[in-house]
Specification:
A hairpin with a 6-residue loop joins β11 (about 245-250) and β12. It is built from ten helices and 15 strands. The strands form two sheets. Strands 10-11-12-9-8-7-6-5-4-13-14-15 form a twelve-stranded mixed beta sheet. The protein has a three-stranded antiparallel beta sheet with strand order 1-2-3, with helices on one face. It is an alpha/beta fold. Mean pLDDT is about 90; it is low at about 1-5 and about 5-10.
Length: about 350
C-alpha cells in the first residue's frame, strides 16, 4: 500500500486513495426503493425501507457534491433502488449540473418510468443513461423482475432515450445461466444497427441471491465465446464512461459489446469511484462494511472534507467476493441498498 496522498497539491489536483487511484466519480443513490424485484438484486418481499427523515434531501446531496467537487470530483451517476421513483428528480439534476467542477451526470435506471421523463431529464443535465434489460422475452422479463408488463415499458423507455438524444445509451444485462444465456447473441445483435452499447455483467453474490449466484453463474468469457460464434469480434475503445467494462464490436457495427467481470477478472486496481447511499453513507466500495456517515455531520454543520479524506484513506484495495457466499458482501442483503 502506498502512503496516503489525500488531496494532491501537484499539477493535477484531486482525490487519491492509499493505493494511488484517482477518485473522480461518485455514484449517488437517491432512494432505496424500487418498482421491480429483480431476482439477482432484491428479495421478492422487498426490504425495510428507509424513513423519509433518514434520506438525504436534494439540497443535502448537492452540498456533499459541492464539497467533493472542490476536492476533485468530476463525474456523477444517479442510481437507486430505482432513481426515477424519487419525486422531481430533474430538480436535483439541475442543481448538480450547476456545481462548478462537475463535468458529467449519468443515470442508471430500469427505464420502466423513463419514457415520459426522458426529455425533462435531458434538459436538466443528464447526458448518458444505463438501462437494465436482462431479457428480450416478455414472459422472462416478468419472471426476472417479478412484476407483470415490464418489458414493453422498458422498451418504450429505451426508444425515448434514443429519441431525446442521450449518448451513449448502455444496456446492462446480468448474465444468468438457464435464465437468459440463450439470448446473449440476440442482445449482441442490438449493437449492430443501433447506437447501443450492450454490456454483460456477471452476477455478484449478496445475502438475498446466494442460490442464484451459485447455481446460475455465467462468466463473461462464456458469453463472448457464444457471440464470437455468430460473427467476429474486435476489441474497441468503447463509449465514454466511468465504468470498468472492456469493449468489443462486430465489424462496422454502430454500437459495441462490453463485459463487466467482477467475479472472473477482478478490475479493482482501476477503481475510480465512491458511493453515496440514500441515507448519506459514503462508501469507498460497493461491498464490505466500510462506510463513513456524512448525513448527520452535514446536518450539524460540520466540515465534510476531513470525512471524505478519511474515506479515501480507508478505501480497500479490492473486494473480497466469493461466488455463492455472502462473506465478502459485508452483510449486504441487496444491491439496491448501496446503488449497485
Amino acid at each position: 500500500m502506498q502512503p496516503f496522498e489525500g488531496i494532491s497539491n501537484g499539477t493535477a489536483p484531486g482525490m487519491v486513495d492509499g493505493y494511488g487511484r484517482r477518485i473522480e466519480y461518485l455514484r449517488i443513490s437517491v432512494t432505496d426503493k424500487c418498482n421491480l424485484r429483480c431476482v439477482y438484486c432484491m428479495p421478492e418481499e422487498g426490504l425495510p425501507w428507509l424513513r423519509r427523515a433518514e434520506i438525504l434531501d436534494y439540497e443535502e446531496i448537492a452540498e456533499i457534491v459541492r464539497v467533493m467537487a472542490g476536492m476533485g470530483l468530476k463525474r456523477l451517476r444517479l442510481t437507486g433502488g430505482e432513481p426515477l421513483v424519487r419525486k422531481d428528480l430533474p430538480r436535483l439534476v439541475a442543481m448538480l449540473a450547476s456545481i462548478p467542477g462537475i463535468e458529467d451526470i449519468a443515470l442508471s435506471t430500469n427505464a420502466v418510468l423513463l419514457a415520459p421523463m426522458a426529455r425533462g431529464l435531458k434538459d436538466a443535465g443528464i447526458t448518458r443513461v444505463n438501462i437494465s434489460l436482462d431479457t428480450l422475452r416478455e414472459d422472462r422479463a416478468d419472471a426476472i423482475a417479478r412484476r407483470p408488463g415490464t418489458l414493453p415499458r422498458v422498451l418504450r423507455g429505451l426508444d425515448a432515450a434514443e429519441k431525446v438524444g442521450f449518448e451513449p445509451i448502455k444496456i446492462n444485462v446480468v448474465l444468468m445461466r438457464g435464465e437468459n444465456d440463450d439470448e446473449v447473441a440476440d442482445f449482441a445483435e442490438l449493437s449492430r444497427n443501433r447506437p447501443l452499447h450492450v454490456r454483460f455483467i456477471e452476477v455478484m453474490p449478496t445475502e438475498s441471491n446466494l442460490e442464484l449466484s451459485a447455481s446460475s453463474f455465467l462468466s463473461c468469457d462464456e458469453a463472448l465465446a457464444a457471440i464470437a460464434r455468430v460473427d467476429a469480434l474486435e476489441p474497441v475503445p468503447g463509449p465514454p464512461g466511468n465504468g470498468p467494462a472492456t469493449y468489443f464490436s462486430f465489424p462496422g457495427a454502430r454500437g459495441t459489446i462490453g463485459v463487466i467481470t467482477p467475479m472472473s477478472h477482478n478490475f479493482c486496481s482501476r477503481c475510480n469511484r465512491m458511493r453515496l447511499t440514500a441515507d448519506g453513507q459514503l462508501r469507498p466500495c460497493l461491498f464490505g462494511t466500510i462506510e463513513t456517515p456524512l448525513r448527520d455531520p452535514l446536518r450539524r454543520g460540520e466540515d465534510l472534507r476531513p470525512l471524505v479524506e478519511e474515506t479515501l484513506r480507508i478505501k480497500p484495495e479490492k473486494h473480497l467476493l466469493v461466488q455463492g457466499s455472502s462473506a465478502g458482501s459485508g452483510g449486504l442483503i441487496a444491491l439496491s441498498q448501496t446503488g449497485g
